[in-house]
């Protein structure tokens, strides 16, 4: 693993709003940054305008290099940050594997679970790199927490978590990326941090559906709180650290994703709740809705672990068209009555 350096060489794989917001921040912190995009058109537009595609046009520093070459973005880098849609992380890792150094720290800023394998994103990255490079023992870090690109791109103070099984890697990421805008905490509970980051998007969809039905703050508070109980039940069954559920990666990210109109998951859910078909809702959002990507894996994990997750189950039934949002509401409200205390988290 690379030793701590004041000026790092950073590759960012992904040119969406979050990837560019991070690239901007890393550059302003004094690091050498290269952003990869698969689109030559995107690269040319960014080179010409130096504007991140977000409201109020945040500026992308001219010092940020842009490329369509995976090799250029990954070779001889201290840190490579994956910021693609969860569905493309495996393919991206396979493309990056031939070029990363054995000591390159592989950071994943994408939240999700892979359908079928049920792997977290860092597991996907590590698996692909190890498969392609027997000489490399991949060092991965999950970067997660309440962090809207719309705010980070305008230097609004934000706290996140760097989780890794390699303490030195987590500390390196913490040191490199902490400053006036980002405060980075470390964690050893990689699986818990990533699990929470994926499931909270599904709960945000539920909150959006409730908003689309015309419900208010009471309903949102109930869904967030009981959604947290569902995350905690599944995480506990999978051996995650209890403290993670009450930290930035879970409670913090859940609150911001389920309560802010910056949230694609909330906005998509609101459209679905108001009667817009799922495909049309996704088209109106115009960007990846990770809660929909994570939903099949969340439900499969729930069934595999025999963990009750009624909110997630109702979201699955609504988005698949099996029941209407109004019926899902009635089913949730008329479930068997039970206590809220510790026994509820074990149910």
UniProtKB/TrEMBL annotation:
<feature type="binding site">
    <location>
        <position position="253"/>
    </location>
    <ligand>
        <name>sn-glycerol 3-phosphate</name>
    </ligand>
</feature>
<feature type="domain" description="Glycerol-3-phosphate dehydrogenase NAD-dependent C-terminal">
    <location>
        <begin position="189"/>
        <end position="329"/>
    </location>
</feature>
<dbReference type="GO" id="GO:0046168">
    <property type="term" value="P:glycerol-3-phosphate catabolic process"/>
</dbReference>
<feature type="binding site">
    <location>
        <position position="263"/>
    </location>
    <ligand>
        <name>sn-glycerol 3-phosphate</name>
    </ligand>
</feature>
<feature type="binding site">
    <location>
        <position position="147"/>
    </location>
    <ligand>
        <name>sn-glycerol 3-phosphate</name>
    </ligand>
</feature>
<feature type="binding site">
    <location>
        <position position="290"/>
    </location>
    <ligand>
        <name>NADPH</name>
    </ligand>
</feature>
<feature type="binding site">
    <location>
        <position position="145"/>
    </location>
    <ligand>
        <name>sn-glycerol 3-phosphate</name>
    </ligand>
</feature>
<dbReference type="GO" id="GO:0008654">
    <property type="term" value="P:phospholipid biosynthetic process"/>
</dbReference>
<dbReference type="GO" id="GO:0046167">
    <property type="term" value="P:glycerol-3-phosphate biosynthetic process"/>
</dbReference>
<keyword id="KW-0560">Oxidoreductase</keyword>
<feature type="binding site">
    <location>
        <position position="264"/>
    </location>
    <ligand>
        <name>NADPH</name>
    </ligand>
</feature>
<dbReference type="GO" id="GO:0006650">
    <property type="term" value="P:glycerophospholipid metabolic process"/>
</dbReference>
<feature type="binding site">
    <location>
        <position position="264"/>
    </location>
    <ligand>
        <name>NAD(+)</name>
    </ligand>
</feature>
<feature type="binding site">
    <location>
        <position position="111"/>
    </location>
    <ligand>
        <name>substrate</name>
    </ligand>
</feature>
<keyword id="KW-0594">Phospholipid biosynthesis</keyword>
<comment type="pathway">
    <text>Membrane lipid metabolism; glycerophospholipid metabolism.</text>
</comment>
<feature type="domain" description="Glycerol-3-phosphate dehydrogenase NAD-dependent N-terminal">
    <location>
        <begin position="10"/>
        <end position="169"/>
    </location>
</feature>
<feature type="binding site">
    <location>
        <position position="18"/>
    </location>
    <ligand>
        <name>NADPH</name>
    </ligand>
</feature>
<dbReference type="Pfam" id="PF01210">
    <property type="entry name" value="NAD_Gly3P_dh_N"/>
</dbReference>
<comment type="similarity">
    <text>Belongs to the NAD-dependent glycerol-3-phosphate dehydrogenase family.</text>
</comment>
<dbReference type="Pfam" id="PF07479">
    <property type="entry name" value="NAD_Gly3P_dh_C"/>
</dbReference>
<keyword id="KW-0443">Lipid metabolism</keyword>
<feature type="binding site">
    <location>
        <begin position="264"/>
        <end position="265"/>
    </location>
    <ligand>
        <name>substrate</name>
    </ligand>
</feature>
<keyword id="KW-0521">NADP</keyword>
<feature type="binding site">
    <location>
        <position position="200"/>
    </location>
    <ligand>
        <name>sn-glycerol 3-phosphate</name>
    </ligand>
</feature>
<feature type="binding site">
    <location>
        <position position="111"/>
    </location>
    <ligand>
        <name>NADPH</name>
    </ligand>
</feature>
<feature type="binding site">
    <location>
        <position position="111"/>
    </location>
    <ligand>
        <name>sn-glycerol 3-phosphate</name>
    </ligand>
</feature>
<protein>
    <recommendedName>
        <fullName>Glycerol-3-phosphate dehydrogenase [NAD(P)+]</fullName>
        <ecNumber>1.1.1.94</ecNumber>
    </recommendedName>
</protein>
<dbReference type="InterPro" id="IPR008927">
    <property type="entry name" value="6-PGluconate_DH-like_C_sf"/>
</dbReference>
<feature type="binding site">
    <location>
        <position position="265"/>
    </location>
    <ligand>
        <name>sn-glycerol 3-phosphate</name>
    </ligand>
</feature>
<feature type="binding site">
    <location>
        <position position="264"/>
    </location>
    <ligand>
        <name>sn-glycerol 3-phosphate</name>
    </ligand>
</feature>
<dbReference type="InterPro" id="IPR011128">
    <property type="entry name" value="G3P_DH_NAD-dep_N"/>
</dbReference>
<keyword id="KW-0963">Cytoplasm</keyword>
<dbReference type="InterPro" id="IPR006109">
    <property type="entry name" value="G3P_DH_NAD-dep_C"/>
</dbReference>
<feature type="binding site">
    <location>
        <position position="288"/>
    </location>
    <ligand>
        <name>NADPH</name>
    </ligand>
</feature>
<dbReference type="InterPro" id="IPR036291">
    <property type="entry name" value="NAD(P)-bd_dom_sf"/>
</dbReference>
<keyword id="KW-0444">Lipid biosynthesis</keyword>
<dbReference type="InterPro" id="IPR006168">
    <property type="entry name" value="G3P_DH_NAD-dep"/>
</dbReference>
<dbReference type="GO" id="GO:0005829">
    <property type="term" value="C:cytosol"/>
</dbReference>
<keyword id="KW-0547">Nucleotide-binding</keyword>
<feature type="binding site">
    <location>
        <position position="88"/>
    </location>
    <ligand>
        <name>NAD(+)</name>
    </ligand>
</feature>
<comment type="function">
    <text>Catalyzes the reduction of the glycolytic intermediate dihydroxyacetone phosphate (DHAP) to sn-glycerol 3-phosphate (G3P), the key precursor for phospholipid synthesis.</text>
</comment>
């Amino acid at each position: 693993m690379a030793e701590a350096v004041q000026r790092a060489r950073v590759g960012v794989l992904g040119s969406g709003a979050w990837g560019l917001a991070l690239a901007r921040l890393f550059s302003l912190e004094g690091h050498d940054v290269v952003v990869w995009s698969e689109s030559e058109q995107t690269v040319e537009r960014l080179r010409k305008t130096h504007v991140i595609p977000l409201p109020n046009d945040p500026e992308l520093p001219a010092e940020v290099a842009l490329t369509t070459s995976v090799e250029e973005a990954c070779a001889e880098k201290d840190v490579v940050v994956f910021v693609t849609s969860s569905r493309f992380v495996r393919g991206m890792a396979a493309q990056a594997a031939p070029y990363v150094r054995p000591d390159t720290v592989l950071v994943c800023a994408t939240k999700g679970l892979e359908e079928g394998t049920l792997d977290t994103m860092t597991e996907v990255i590590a698996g692909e790199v190890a498969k392609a490079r027997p000489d490399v023992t991949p060092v991965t870090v999950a970067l997660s927490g309440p962090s809207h690109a719309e705010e980070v791109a305008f230097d609004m103070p934000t706290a996140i978590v760097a989780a890794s099984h390699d303490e030195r890697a987590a500390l390196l990421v913490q040191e490199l990326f902490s400053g006036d805008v980002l405060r980075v905490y470390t964690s050893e509970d990689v699986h818990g941090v990533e699990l929470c980051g994926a499931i909270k998007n599904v709960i945000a969809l539920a909150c959006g559906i409730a908003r689309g039905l015309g419900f208010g703050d009471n309903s949102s508070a109930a869904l967030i709180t009981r959604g947290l109980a569902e995350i905690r039940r599944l995480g506990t069954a999978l051996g995650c650290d209890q403290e993670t559920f009450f930290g930035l990666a879970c409670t913090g990210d859940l609150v911001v994703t389920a309560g802010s109109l910056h949230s694609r998951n909330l906005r998509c859910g609101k459209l679905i709740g108001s009667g817009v078909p799922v495909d049309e809702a996704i088209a109106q959002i115009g960007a990846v809705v990770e809660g929909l990507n994570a939903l099949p894996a969340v439900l499969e994990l729930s069934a595999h672990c025999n963990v009750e997750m009624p909110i997630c189950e109702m979201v699955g039934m609504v988005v698949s068209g099996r029941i209407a949002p109004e019926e899902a509401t009635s089913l949730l409200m008329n479930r068997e009555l039970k206590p809220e205390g510790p026994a509820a988290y074990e149910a």
